[in-house]
Amino acid sequence: MTVQKENTQRVIEVGAADLPLHCPTPDQIAWNGHPRVFLPIEKKGEALCPYCGTLYKLREGEVIKGHH
Prior knowledge:
Elements (H helix, E strand, L loop, with lengths): L10 E4 L7 E2 L13 E2 L7 E3 L6 E4 L10
């Protein structure tokens, strides 16, 4: 079972296994979040959530297969 937590980080590193990426992520508490929004991180290696301002960055060296 995944422990859910509040999103208190403003920069979160993610891996290829986290794609497709959306905010809030599955391990974040939903009751105080915003609507789920999918973030296009594949092309630039980072994406900013338009709701909460969290910056998601793809971990260095991650290889994305099958996502465009």
